[in-house]
Amino acid sequence: MNATSADDARCSDEAPNLEQLLGDPWDAGNPFGYARGIAADERGESDECAESMLDQWQLNAEFVPLRLGGRWSCTEDMIHRLRPLFRRDAALGLGYGVTSLMAAVNVWAAGTPMQQQELSRLLLSGKKVSIAYHELDHGNDFLRNECVSYPSDTGSFFIHGSKHVINNVHRAAAWIIFARTASTPGARSHSLFLLKPDQAMPGSWHVLPRFHTSGVRACHLSGLQFNRLEAPPASLLGEQGNGAEIALRSFQVTRIVLPGMAIGMLDTGLRLAADFAMKRRLYGDTIVSLPRVRRFLSASLLDLLSMDCLVTAAARALHLAPQHASVYAAAVKYLVPSVLKESLGDLSIVLGARAYLRDGKYAMFGKLLRDIPVVGLGHAGGTVCLLTIMAQLPTLARHATNHAPLATALFEARSPMPPFDFSALSIAARGADTLLGTLASGLDVLEAAGEGGTSLARLVRELSAAFDALCSTSRRLSPAQIGPAAPAASFELAQRYALLAMAAACLGVWLIQRRDSRHPFLQNPEWVTAALARIRWRLAHGKPLTSESLDEPLALEVLRRVDDNLSFCLSSTPLHGSSHVCHQH
Length: 585
Ligand SMILES: Cc1cc2nc3c(=O)[nH]c(=O)nc-3n(C[C@H](O)[C@H](O)[C@H](O)COP(=O)(O)OP(=O)(O)OC[C@H]3O[C@@H](n4cnc5c(N)ncnc54)[C@H](O)[C@@H]3O)c2cc1C
What we know:
The protein is of the alpha+beta class. The chain is built from 18 helices and 10 strands. It has helices spanning 18-22, 34-43, 48-57, 75-88, 90-110, 113-124, 243-279, 291-320, 325-351, 363-371, 373-377, 382-398, 437-448, 455-474, 488-513, 520-523, 525-539, 551-564, and strands spanning 128-132, 148-151, 157-167, 172-180, 190-195, 205-211, 221-231, 236-237, 281-282, 285-286. The strands form 3 sheets. It has a 4-stranded mixed sheet with strand order 1-4-5-8. The chain has a 4-stranded antiparallel sheet with strand order 2-3-7-6, with no helix packed on it. Strand 9 (281-282) and strand 10 form a beta hairpin. The longest helix is centred in the middle third of the chain and has 37 residues, at 243-279. The protein is globular. Flavin-adenine dinucleotide (FAD) is lined by residues 99, 131-134, 139-141, 165-167, 213, 216, 219, 221, 374, 377-381, 383, 387, 484. Flavin-adenine dinucleotide is lined by residues 99, 131-134, 139-141, 165-167, 213, 216, 219, 221, 374, 377-381, 383, 387, 484.
């Protein structure tokens, strides 16, 4: 997606609001309501009516760059516009939606103008596109993939082999296939192809049996078997041998976008848990008055806000600091799924046995518990993302700078940015680390404002020292310590980097928000102090957490947002329908 005009990436509110289309979640007849979502999950098939309403909303247009007739201009905006779908049903978000984006980004990154036009035409007419990287025998070790594509005398290629656990292949109008084009091992051994099943010779391919999953059961995963499928020269994406490089650039977008949208799942989990806690009476009072329950609710709000800060900074970095996006995207794709899982697990303690029932008022919570692991499993597991960070730690450490000016644009949610340019993305990070540099530059800001003695400044000083320590260890890492056979200690360094990136993002966002009186909750330092304390707790492997006095304002904020029917993310947006759970059940 190359630049067309200076305001290509202007974040806009002009696109239709998906939350309005999704209607009241507690309306049993609503195709996007919880009851219909759970029924679709039980059947293992999407709700047809919901899909056709998303067709009418032209959801695919979100994935098509503005210059090709779509609505993708500002990546942060795309995440915000589609998050409501994940608040309702991740199976629709992923199965109906985002896997088409995972496929399309490869074409926007490397396709010819004709390939890009062809794909945008398909997407804008509501068609699905599948991305076929994965082979069961090789998992994330995708440079060993065996599905082969060999040249013929006529200049075409023949694709032979199979792909597994691929979304939507049975109904896709196009496939992006990752296939081996050189027998020698190495980074230039594979290429990508854009093919349309309706142009393929019958008998040269068939769809393999469906895979069934524990969560997102309405997603249709199967595989493809190719038997000398002819791929004309014009189907090659980019140059022969560039498949891995194109994929690694494309992942930088999707590894931020998918977790960024999936944060919506925790929003719904927190709403259900808070509602339950406000209604469930034990020991003569509602359980929301119990300190431990308040701790779980407030911690979950903190997690949600912290993840939103990280996603905001990473999505903006795609436009503003693309030379670092590979490492920020890996931090998001490792950390967000694991925090989502942990936080939802804690909320399940609030719901107790209700979290385990597949029917009744809180059945949606059980579906969330089943669905949420997929955020971490699909499209690169956490381990691979830690490997991406780890491999870059020595370089990042060498370029770590203190006392650079605060990179305010990275944190100023929804403010205009330069257009996103795929060609500016880099496989390996270069230059000063703008996001992590915020720990030092943010501390400078606090000290200059005479706030160097606050609890917040003390935490920032501690986290900044943790980053310095990480850098000095990282500078000494040998190549063997940062490759696939790295020791567990190297993985821990990469985990610490991701947590510190989240801390830096929280601080950066707050330093912007403190000037904005429209959001008193975000303006106040209480939430960011508690968020950094929680990150420090994660870094210290569970040493004592914050004092309970920090829980209270957060627990109150959870209850206020439940009552006012507002989302729990940074933007605190109004939600559709009734504020409390299911009067009709
Ligand atoms: C719902 C869903 C939808 C999907 N849709 C698609 C799709 O549309 N297209 C597509 O191509 N694929 C798709 N996939 C496949 C998915 O991308 C792969 O399954 C996944 O990326 C590979 O995961 P794996 O656990 O099989 O990885 P593996 O590589 O087999 O890894 C297994 C585990 O080994 C350990 N491990 C691996 N490497 C190391 C190391 N160096 N050091 C230490 N431990 C290590 C880790 O714990 C890792 O999780 C989908 C999967 C799911 C679940």
